[in-house]
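Support request, please re-run this one:
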Amino acid sequence: MKTYAAIYENEIRKESSSGGVFSLLASNILEKNGSVYGVTMTDDCYSAEFKRVTTEKGLYRLRGSKYFQAKVNKTYKLVKQDLQDGMDVLFSGTACQVNGLKLFLGKEYSNLTCVDVICHGVPSPALWKKYATFQEEKYAKIQSVNFRCKDESWQDFGMKENQVFISMHTDSFMRMFLRDYCLRPSCYECLAKQDKKSDITIADFWGIDNVAPEMNDNKGTSLVIVRTDKGADIFEAVKGKLNLKEVSYEDGVRSNPSDYKSVRRPEQRDTFFNDMNFMDFSELEKKYAADIKVPLSIRVKHKIKSILRKISGGGRK
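Re-run finished. Output below.
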């Protein structure tokens, strides 16, 4: 297993959540007249689903994070048919979706490459629809959504709805998600994290400034974990197009432990879902997305650490 910080220095990176590596891997498959499976938002922006893409033009819909579980529908059957037809296939999803595909197929295929994304956990699609409806009642129909907009900063991202940026620190849906109230029950004890069947894992390289600050231009850096010989072969075919630095696995996941560890189940989790079924979103927002008061001693401690980092040259470059 090898671990890298990676940047695809291409305009595509602007549309990607981090360093744009997914698009490069996908293009490699499409150049062989293969198919790529990934997640896209539905037209009404109320849910997400898997989509089969066979042209570069269609890849844009698969870029970027979608913060809820995608509907698989008939995707596994379509992947199997493509494989049996001799096509090269790239399947990308969460680790549990990759493992589910492997179990469905029942055997290994040399023409299948699986890429998982490091997953914090997936929030309730019912919560998203409730949130989206609430936003539409206040503003306008949501026609587009970017869960990981980098307009302000790659590391301090936000959501963009209909071209309106909302910081992750203030958006109520993001607050509930990042506080772990709204995740699926299995996400608190994810079995897939202990037995990943993917060939390559990709993610945001959180903590890059502490590992390889020269790899952070604040436009997005990918973490790439190559797990299998097949993954090594496809990565070898594209790495010449990447700005790349090999790091240890420990350094790669130090600030992203979701690769191997599930989040803790909050005590309020059951209460949250009960409230979600009966409360208006505005009431839910007040109860579960309000500002968290940070004690003065902790705020001072963080401020001192920030000042020391700047003095020691540990800021962004």
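The chain has a mean pLDDT of 86. The longest strand covers residues 35-41.
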